[in-house]
From TrEMBL:
Domain of life per record: Bacteria
Signal peptide: none
Protein name per its UniProtKB record: SMC-Scp complex subunit ScpB
Keywords, ordered alphabetically: Cell cycle, Cell division, Chromosome partition, Cytoplasm
One GO term (biological process): chromosome separation
InterPro entries for the chain: ScpB_csome_segregation, WH-like_DNA-bd_sf, WH_DNA-bd_sf
Organism: Candidatus Azambacteria bacterium RIFCSPLOWO2_01_FULL_46_25
PANTHER family: SEGREGATION AND CONDENSATION PROTEIN B
Gene3D superfamilies on file: Winged helix-like DNA-binding domain superfamily/Winged helix DNA-binding domain
Coiled-coil positions: none
Record bears the keyword Cell division: yes
Amino acid sequence: MAPIASQLESLLFISGDPLSITKIRRVLGDAISDTEIVAAIKELQAGYAKRGIRVLLKDGMAQMVSSPENAPLVASLVKSHMAEELTPAALETLAAICYREPIAKADIDELRGVNSIFSLRSLLMRGLIEKTKEHGVPHYRTTLDFLKKLGIESVHDLPNYDELSKHS
């Protein structure tokens, strides 16, 4: 596998969201051309052709997704995952969002000291948080469903909200 393809694979895996070719080029280095990036995407597509993961490229956006053949299996896992309790990492991530919303992923990661992407995915899948844009940057906030599950009208009703929500 070419080094660019390997690097791109890591970016797509960690991101979880579609990445534009422009953003990929910025991260990998502007010396890399769009043509080289598309070639790396095609290399990944060929490598994943008969596997459980696919790499999609549409309208200049690339994303890793599960293969359509495995949709029932993936749906079953998601359903069972939703029935499980939140992990300590997910609870910590949710607390950061509750008391600092709207908050960018980078700020959550800084507060926690670790990458929060997997906790964020879990919370998004459960409908407890949603992704919004603030000044063109993705941010996370709690959902109405989250408030309903807690039986509160606002995050301001959370314990010690005024004290803990202060941005330092």
